[in-house]
Request: fold
Amino acid sequence: MRAFLLGVSFLALAACGGGDKDDGPLDPVDPTDDTDPPTPEETSRDYDELASILGAHVRGEFAMQLAAAEISEGRFPSGFQLTGQTETEYTGTGTLDGLSYSFTYHCNDGTPEHGLAPCDGTAHHSHIKFDATGAQSVGAMAMEQITRVVDWEIRDLLVDKARFRGPDQMTLKTSVATNGETASYGVQFSAIYEQVRYLPSQTIPTYGTIDFTINTERTRGSDRRVFNAMAKLTFGAAGSPTTLVIDNMHNYTINLATGAVVKL
Reply:
């Protein structure tokens, strides 16, 4: 097994939507000359570096998710504030770790009709949409042109076991160094969160999955490559490791407490 440290974390509260408004979608066709395709070693390195980006992104968003749960219960963490309220929804803004947020949310009761309820700590669940933009540096990796949009349903608020599900979209630019050689990355992904749960007083999820659809542009030296990938992250429960599988064949574990990724 080969271990490498996560050098990035991506915190971003966002609302349902997203995408890079400036650059548009990346070319889905690998521009590498057919007579000079990437070597197996280069491809393996690309997957490893993409794993570090995804793992760090997930590791870094925990504070944002916990803030979303607090807001849903009528408590505003430092840096966040309510800006408006109507009969059907609340609005707010905030800043966290170099990112700026705007958000809307509402809460529902536990009836079959999911009637509207105050977001005051007595609601059964919430629906919260976050938009985030900005740049941040975490560890050895600097991230720029971050744009993120999420639309999450948060359940189990009454029992202090916040459980997230719903879509996410994000774009970012960053760089990853491997063996002293730096590669630049532009990453776009869409993701679906399913049952990502926090237990009471815990700051790391202990259950749930995230499915990613990823479009990546990588430049290493004079070599540029664009490639697509699918990935699935499964949070460990009951002492089992958190795993990341890319394209059904590249397997990793992620230590969510230390930020280390291990290739299996």
